[in-house]
Amino acid sequence: MLLTISTTHQPATDLGFLLHKHPDRFQSFELSFGASHVFYPEANEQRCTACLMLDVDPVEMARGRRRQQNSALAHYVNDRPYVASSFMSTAISQVLGSALAGRCKDRPDLVETPLPLEVMIEVLPVKGGENFLRSIFEPLGYEVETQLHVLDENFKEWGDSPYFSVKLSNTVTLTKLLNHLYVLIPVFDNQKHYFVGRDELNKLLTKGEGWLASHPEKEAIARRYLKFQPSLFRQALARLAEEEGAAEQSDDAQQQPEDALEQPLSLNDQRLGAVMAALRSAGAKRIVDLGCGEGKLLRELLKDKQFAEILGMDVSIRSLEIASRRLKIDDLPSFQAERIKLMHGSLMYRDKRLFGFDAAAVVEVIEHLDPPRLSAFERVLFQHAKPQTIVLTTPNAEYNEMWETLPAGKFRHSDHRFEWTRDEFQSWSTGIGDRFGYLVRFVPVGPEDDKLGPPTQMGVFTRE
Ligand code: SAH
């Protein structure tokens, strides 16, 4: 199976920089379903063509398979080695990962530059025919040329196959083009060759960022990409609608840049989910949310009866006012009102009101503290308040390069005083554990990158 990408941008060999693959070299990569190779049949100043070739090993695929399929023979005799399918997307992300993410150290200017590009997909199985094919690529600005293949040249009466050769032309950045192919190639195919879970939902939303929400066929794309799993499909549509419409107006202007950056992943939801899970499994009943901000976690805590007493604390009166309004604290029925309180306070000062809780949550707060004052916070929480469980999250600085909209070296939020790598966070946390008698375990939050780790890191501290 062959995918070729050509450009007539001058000098055309710039394509090699963008793909991070030297035009003079033939390179091979081992993937879980076989091998893939990258090579350039032509590379001169006027025109450069890169090929991504997949060598899918059907036997290896069958061995790796755990799920029961219709017939045993289909494991070995199938079209997978010959067509562009989700395997092609996997190869794009694993072999051309930097180009897909829009990273190019040598020529960053090129990443942003729309180039005249031509793509040839040798064989694409298309459920839905040519009209569907065009309805997917044309709204994205592609000129589409297709050639439909008959089932068998020797038996024309058997009619057409579902297989097309497809040529796409567009002037577009290479990153955009690769993201389009990554999402769209599996959409034409009707076969499911991998488990579709939340992971796939996140991939769809990150790779579809900036174009899928406004695509006229976004529903068909999401439904097919997620292989007709209704619950994932509904979530995808909700998030796409969110992306397209204006984001919910945040009263606190300061919070906006961070939210906007993280919104496509809805990292915020995943973080809240992870924190809630840790608090639940600790069996905590009395919880204090330190640096509660506008009360997102408090709202979740209120929904779960396990949490009998909930205290939100923040240094910002304005945030507390917003939290109070959003949670409708003044209008809660009395049984709810008794469970929750908000208080003004600072993590810099020892405070008796923080004593006696089962658990404390400190969600995306420490990076707002000045490093020289961190030790004051450590004593306030780990030495004086010392709840049984502390659930603490902070950004993973390594992951920042995954956000296309975040300039290199910048923090995710203008008020962040620092952002830590995984090593920095883990050594800080284990140091605290040793000094104040807590065991700590680390939990990744959000879609994890093989090299860069997850976007958010979470430490769950348990008092020994
Ligand atoms: N936990 C919330 C808010 C995170 S933003 C959420 O996840 O949405 C960081 C919050 O920490 C802000 O609301 C800020 O006012 C608060 N904060 C910063 N320094 C603080 C301090 N010294 N004491 C208490 N809260 C503080």
Strand neighbour order, sheet with most strands: 2-3-4-1-5-7-6
Give the second-level CATH assignment, the architecture of the largest domain.
Answer: 3-Layer(aba) Sandwich
By CATH reckoning, the class of the largest domain would read Alpha Beta
CATH topology (level 3) name of the largest domain: Rossmann fold
Per CATH, the superfamily of the largest domain is: Vaccinia Virus protein VP39
Low-pLDDT windows of residues: 65-69, 246-257, 260-265
Radius of gyration: 26 Å
Short structural description:
The chain is of the alpha/beta class and 464 residues long. The chain has two domains: 2-194, Hen1, N-terminal domain (c-terminal autoproteolytic domain of nucleoporin nup98, 2-Layer Sandwich); 266-463, Rossmann fold (3-Layer(aba) Sandwich), CATH 3.40.50. The chain contains 17 helices and 14 strands.
Describe the protein:
- It is built from 17 helices and 14 strands.
- It has 464 residues and is of the alpha/beta class.
- The chain folds into two domains: 2-194, c-terminal autoproteolytic domain of nucleoporin nup98 (2-Layer Sandwich), CATH 3.30.1610.20; 266-463, Vaccinia Virus protein VP39 (Rossmann fold, 3-Layer(aba) Sandwich), CATH 3.40.50.
- The strands form two sheets. It has a seven-stranded antiparallel sheet.
- It is elongated and about 85 Å long.
- The protein binds S-adenosyl-L-homocysteine (SAH).
